[in-house]
Predict the 3D structure of the following.
Amino acid sequence: MRSKYTRHCAATVMALAGTISSWATAAPLPCEQLAELTVPASAIALPTRGAKVTGVKVFDAGGTAPKTFGEYCLVSGEIDPVDATAPKIKFQLALPANWNRRVMMLGGGGYDGTVPNVAGNIAAGPADQPNPIGRGYAVFGSDSGHEGASNQGSFGANDEALRNFASDALKKTRDTALALVQKRYAEPVLRSYFAGGSTGGREALAVTQKWPQDFDGVIALYPAFNAVSLDLQFGRITRALAVPGAYPNLQKRKALYDAAIEACDGADGVVDGLISNQSACNASFNPATANLNGQPLRCAGGADTGDNCLSDLQINAMNVINTPVTFNYPLANGETQYPGFNVWGTDFGRPGAGAVQAYVNFLGLNTLAPTFPMPAPGAVSAPGVPYGSGFWDQWVRYFVTRDPGFNSLTLDPENPGRWSARISELTGLQDANKADLSAFAQRGGKILMAHGTSDQLVSTRATQQYYQRIRAAMGAARADGFVRYYEIPGYNHALSTVFGAAWDSISALENWVEKGVAPVNQLVFDTTGVPGRSRPLCEYPNWPKYKGSGDANAAASFSCVAP
Ligand SMILES: [Ca+2]
């Protein structure tokens, strides 16, 4: 008769044998053999019903220099939700044959809804270097748990989909991808990185706050870190633009842009089409008194008298964009305001046929004034309302009220009445505004943040605030040990007609994390306004000032100076 001890001992031996045999037989799996793999729910830290690979495809080495890449295996898969009515999380994972033992997770944009191009570049990444896949990274990302356009928020009606978008999908995707990376290579991961812009920038900061042990370094470009506060600012701006006569058309926005350039371009030391000292321009420019080509920018008498001037209603609307929204009710995440945008010199969408201009218009004020019912979110080329207005409308209808027929123009974001509690609850879910990042700093994590000074969709001033909050919460010296924040004059949101930023942030982050070499003398290159020109990437609050002589297209002719 076996004793309890014997039974226990036998079970232990069997368990050990199982562990040893699976460990001992863990050999790298070729791409084709990943096709049948599943990842159990137990391998994913947040609740799911597990994940499975739905397809694999081998890509031969290729690309055109400098964007070359070696052979890689593209794995597609999905993570099953706990709620059977919630959408799956769809993800992709690119696994290079010649792996550098590092992983790179990519963030999304807007309301997400599509899997990022895992073979592509990172936000504002370098144009003269291979993409992460070409550097040997295993690269992955997900649709964050629903399919749809980046301006489509109807998934918010489902709690699990909303939580996945808010941040849960980041952890679920990361754990699933890491399990598959282990199966493919049977080797430990040396370093883990995250890169994203906009919502992807929020996601980059969210992982440092929520799962500080998961990543060694993150790149957060133009991060919409306090997403709900930004939504509320969108609401305030939308209501201002919906006032009859207040919406400025493309031509009027060109007039405003040109007037700001006329006033502020040369005031930074060089007429180069860039307002490099944006804070000085913010302090001095006034659309009500500015001139354009010798004529007042303000229409005669303040009435709408043509496309080369702005009426008082239109000037008022642009002043609303320039100023903060304040919350006259408590929010769970402690936010009390969201700042205005750098309006003067920012391209909110101007006349022009180019693809970049079309996208800037789409992300900007677009072609239609906000109205009720708000036109359905459209494509880049179709007439549409301001991106932020559509974003606000979707958020109010599907996240806040969950009433698809609700008129979002009737919700006052400064005094939302019976919706205050729900909005506060959403700040707790959606916002990544924690300023004490001690756990991430303690494990050696590094953060590179950058933001264009001409961002029309996420306020540069909000990122300034977040950076200052980190310094206040942790002390300047400690913050300097793991965070850098740079501002890029002329750079808009994601794309720009004026200065399309390209920065080798990955090398800077690798050097800091892996060699302890903090970034200095970083350069940013223009891909659109004057392709190839360079500027020093200045640590906020410094800005790049022309030295007074030398090639205005060369970074060497500029130095970073204090405001
Ligand atoms: Ca200038």
Notes: The mean pLDDT is 95. Residues 265, 268, 270-272, 274-276 surround calcium ion (CB under 6 Å). The CA atoms of residues 486 and 540 lie 5 Å apart.
